């Protein structure tokens, strides 16, 4: 892991397209601004993990189990 120190309004570049800027620091919380192309998803880690879990569950659904999801019945 690379650890960097930044002050408020300073940025970090990831590749050519992603900019992370320290927007605010209050106590033990740091607010970050992230600029990235729309093709690059940006999520908090806990949201990313939840999405992965849901996608994994959905990939194990058997064909007949989706009938209850159809609103046209």
How would you describe what is shown here?
By secondary structure, the protein is of the alpha+beta class. The chain has one domain. Helices cover 21% and strands 27% of the residues. The protein has one helix and three strands; from the N terminus they run βββα. It has a three-stranded antiparallel β-sheet, with no helix packed on it. β1 and β2 form a beta hairpin. The mean pLDDT is 90.
Label the overall shape: elongated
> SSE order in H/E notation?
EEEH
Largest sheet: 3 strands, antiparallel
Unreliable spans: none
Instruction: Record the strand order, biggest sheet.
Output: 1-2-3
Give the distance, in angstroms, between the N- and C-terminal Cα atoms.
51 Å
Would you count the extended β strands for me?
A: 3
In short:
By secondary structure, the protein is an alpha+beta fold. The chain has one helix spanning 45-59; strands spanning 11-14, 18-26, 29-35.
What does the secondary structure layout of this molecule look like, with pairings?
Blueprint: E1 11-14, E2 18-26, E3 29-35, H1 45-59
Antiparallel strand pairs: 1-2, 2-3
Q: What labels would you give this structure?
A:
alpha+beta; 73 residues
